[in-house]
Amino acid sequence: MAEKKILIVDYDAASLEKLSKLLKSHKFHVIKASDGQSGYDKFGAEQPDLVVIEAILPKIHGFDLTKRITQESEGRVPVVMITGLYKGPQFRREALGPLGAAEFFEKPVDPETFVGAIKRLLHDEDELDEALPDSNAVIEALSRRGLGQTSPRGEAKSAHKGKRP
Fold this sequence. Notes:
Helix 3 (62-72) links the parallel strand 3 and strand 4. This protein has helices at 13-24, 36-46, 62-72, 89-96, 111-128, 135-146, and strands spanning 5-9, 29-33, 50-54, 79-83, 103-106. It contains six helices and five strands. It is α/β, with parallel strands linked by helices and 165 residues long. The chain starts with a strand and ends in a 19-residue tail after the last helix. Mean pLDDT is 85; it is low at 125-130 and 155-160. It has one domain: Rossmann fold, CATH 3.40.50. The protein is globular.
């Protein structure tokens, strides 16, 4: 498997370095940017497999950058949003909903959970194009499995012959 490229965009140098070291220790190729505009430029130039974006960014806000990357990649490049400021379920819903982020983490980020999410998102991307069965084959297989198992109304057939209670 080729080394996956991850772009990290964070204005906070310490946070950027910490996330970079964490991801490098898991054999990811890391590209760093410290503001939204350079993050956007590197996204275009480097074609990363995944992007980690801090919500608060100079030049292009993290929310805007998330939406832009998600739209331009048509959702093929997962975006993981991290934030130390926008805490709470309403920001999580906005990030994962209209902005299109694949994951949302509040700082301080739990390293194990964070890396697990990154690996899952990158693995899902790999598996998506492989061996998806034809929809007609799925319907046929399900109909064969279901023969004699349920009544036309979807009720399980009773093994008892006799009156219903």
